[in-house]
Design the sequence.
């Protein structure tokens, strides 16, 4: 049984690792994503230069971004920076999962940040996307926004 | 005309217009309580005037621009780095802009670097970064 402590800057450890569950990429995932980002390129539903349909390259980014949710209750956060390397197209029918590791945490101008590097792989262990993202932690009981 | 003949450093790319409605944000992020993306009361409690689009949606917009430019050379071999500078709110109207910054030989092909930035309807830059990809051989 997994326990979920609340994520705080203090509890977070540089070097700690995360892993997602495996997700089967479906045509419906790709169709929903196309609607959400207003991009219905024909390669996402039909033939492509890779032989068959492919997914938007950023389709599985939320799997990586949510890695910490598999270990912690996350009160609130903001995404500050994102870096991707697209190695192989994600395709419908793949079973993909993401693994990540916290590589830094720091405080700047009174705000707390964590930096995670990650890789998303298919069921054969082939790396599809590598990346790194920086997330701001919004501590419980605080406000961040513009009002 | 071949893609390589359409690439010139300094050239601006056709802009994209995006309207991240609450419904699109809901589909992107998944509706749940206590989310600054899909729960207006929670967004308000966190100090935002409305739910926010996920920053990641802007990376999808930038990717679309790169695939329109380079096709498979972005899906396999592309890179994208973006910083999220200002919140994007449900109902904002965004313009995604890009400019070819550089080209460099890479093996048998050429890597193209594009500066990308996104502005809202008030002209405020909400995200900026750099993307690269390979020209088709």
Sequence:
């Amino acid at each position: 049984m997994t326990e979920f402590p609340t994520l705080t800057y203090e509890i977070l450890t540089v070097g700690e690792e995360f892993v997602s569950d495996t997700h089967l990429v479906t045509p419906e995932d790709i169709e929903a994503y196309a609607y959400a980002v207003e991009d219905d390129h024909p390669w996402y539903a039909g033939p492509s230069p890779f032989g068959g349909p492919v997914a938007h390259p950023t389709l599985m980014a939320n799997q990586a971004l949510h890695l910490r949710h598999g270990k912690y209750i996350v009160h609130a956060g903001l995404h500050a920076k994102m870096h991707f390397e697209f190695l192989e197209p994600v395709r419908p029918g793949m079973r993909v999962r993401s693994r990540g590791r916290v590589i830094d945490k720091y405080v700047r101008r009174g705000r707390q940040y964590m930096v995670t590097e990650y890789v998303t792989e298919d069921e054969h262990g082939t790396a599809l996307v590598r990346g790194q993202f920086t997330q701001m932690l919004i501590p419980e009981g605080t406000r961040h926004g513009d009002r | 005309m071949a893609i390589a003949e359409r690439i010139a450093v300094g050239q601006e790319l056709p802009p994209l217009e995006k309207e991240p409605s609450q419904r699109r944000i809901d589909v992107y992020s998944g509706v749940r309580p206590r989310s600054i993306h899909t729960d207006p009361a929670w967004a308000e409690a966190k100090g935002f005037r409305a739910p926010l689009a996920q920053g990641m949606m802007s990376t999808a917009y930038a990717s679309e621009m790169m695939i329109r430019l380079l096709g498979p050379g972005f899906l396999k071999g592309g890179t994208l780095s973006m910083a999220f500078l200002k919140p994007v709110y449900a109902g904002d109207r965004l313009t995604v802009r890009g400019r070819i910054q550089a080209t460099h030989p890479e093996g048998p092909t050429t890597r193209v670097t594009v500066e990308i930035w996104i502005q809202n309807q008030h002209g405020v830059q909400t995200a900026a970064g750099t993307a690269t990809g390979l020209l088709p051989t």
